[in-house]
UniProtKB/TrEMBL annotation:
InterPro entries: NqrM. This is (Na+)-NQR maturation NqrM.
Amino acid sequence: MMSTFIAAFVVLLLFFLLMSVGYIIKRKAVEGSCGGLGVLGIEKACDCDDPCDKRKRRMAESEREAKLNQNRII
């Protein structure tokens, strides 16, 4: 029982080690290969007609920042 746990832990540790080496060499983040939500026709993570208050605040903040950046002189 304990040897199975140790073997599984070592395999998992080896997997993470190899992933980190791949990231260090390629400098590219791990990403999905299936296209994610775009395949389903959903263009954004929150596809609600009426977003929640937290989402509305984030959207308003990003619009405000975009306007500030657009009107910035320097």
